[in-house]
Amino acid sequence: MGENNSMALWQWQELLLACGIDVAANGPDVSGISIDSRSLEPGDLFVALSGNPGPRFSTSSVVARDGHEFVQKAKSAGAAGILVSRDTSSSLPEIRMENTLDGLWQIGAAARERMQGKVVGITGSSGKTTARSWLESILSKEAQTHASTGSFNNHWGVPLSLARMPRNAEYGVFEIGMSNPGEIAPLSELVRPSVALLLNVLPAHLQSFDDLDAVRREKLSITSGLSDEGILVLHEGINLDGIYQGRVVTFGFSKSATVSAELSSAVSQTQVQVTIDGKNYAFHLAVGGVHRVLTALGCLGTAYALGADLEQACEVIASLETPAGRGNLLELSGLSIIDDSYNANPVSMQYALDALRQRRGGRKIAVLGEMLELGADSGRYHESILDSCKELDGVITVGEGFANISPGDNFWGHYDASVDIDLAELAELLEEGDIILVKGSNKVFWVNNFITTIVEALS
N or C end: fewer C-beta atoms under 10 angstroms in the chain? Predict the structure, then answer.
């Protein structure tokens, strides 16, 4: 075994034991875990995942790419060792398992087992990444905090994020997502959260579920990983319906919520008064919209459930920004662009439009991408969104969901795809002071890097 460095993320023998290999083999200390040779850092263990997640997540998409094909690139990038399921003719120290995804899960479980602090699991139809980022900021003020990055919330992202957690972390914050039934519960049981935060239940991924109530039940399955002492934090409007009977903290705008809030302003800067256990707190948000306030309340409720310093949490909230693509305000050449391009569902789209209308300034223009995975009610949802756009000064729609419907006289055109938008023509239509919202499902704008394209065109 390599040098006994207690500060290493993993010692080789720890990795072997985590993977169920009871062999006293020598190997290097490992400073990180990677599944992508392109982002691998020197000293990482490279886990070669196949493109098939196997029966545990049989409903997840299967991809053709196999990590075993990139072992040599991982070695060139400085990998300390590899976790593989077959011979790769590599000279790197290796851990051999029949299923490398199982190995990653087992390392993630071992990381959770050795961590002596408190862990938060976050789910919801919208706002997970923002809540994860904000909670990381809040809890980092108290103690060493480890959190997932990006949107690592699926069958490989969650165990990878766990496997990267330092042994001395005092808080862990993890997103838990889903696209299909049965995906949240095993992830929650892996994370074993001390506190589970359920932000909302909205119309999303409906094509994979019978109805919105099935989505609610799937989201509530995050409680399957909670211990008897665990706490569920959730929006006051979500019906538990006998699914969970443990400790609960609610957040919302009614007096009966555990974290009860009142807005004094929701225009340029949102002022929020909060009551918890009879004590009053206050914070303001630089990012507007009721949906952002609810995310902040969920974070504050989680901090309360964890026993964190609430006064300090409110101070941190005042300085928070949203992650890229979740409502960021970009200023350029006399124009303002609200980048909400990461994803969309009918409720989050409505929230974004409400926040756009409330902004002070020039004309309000929306560039809206279709909302995917809405099932049989897709047409009705898209029509209702455009009904809410009649007070705007300009509307552009993108994608099949919005085809053949328009909001009225303020309609600036429909395009099959974001790449079809004539940005030169759009630039001619815009005036100084205009505020432009860009929002749609992930595949419409985000994966096509549309914000970068439009910013370059309008600068």
Answer: C
Intra-chain end-to-end CA distance of the chain, in Å = 56
Contact 9, 164 (CB under 8 A): yes
In the chain, the largest separation of any two C-alpha atoms, in whole Å, equals: 74
Q: Which domains does the chain have, with CATH numbers?
A: 12-97 (3.40.1390.10), 115-317 (3.40.1190.10), 328-458 (3.90.190.20)
Phi then psi dihedrals of residue 245, to 5 deg: -125, 15
DSSP per position, 46-90: EE---S---GGGTTSPP-S--GGGGHHHHHHTT-SEEEESS----
Share of the chain above pLDDT 90, in %: 74
Q: Sign of torsion, CA 456 365 348 122?
A: positive
Asked if the model's pLDDT at residue 4 lies above 50, the reply is no
Query: For 118, phi and psi rounded to 5 degrees?
Result: -115, 145
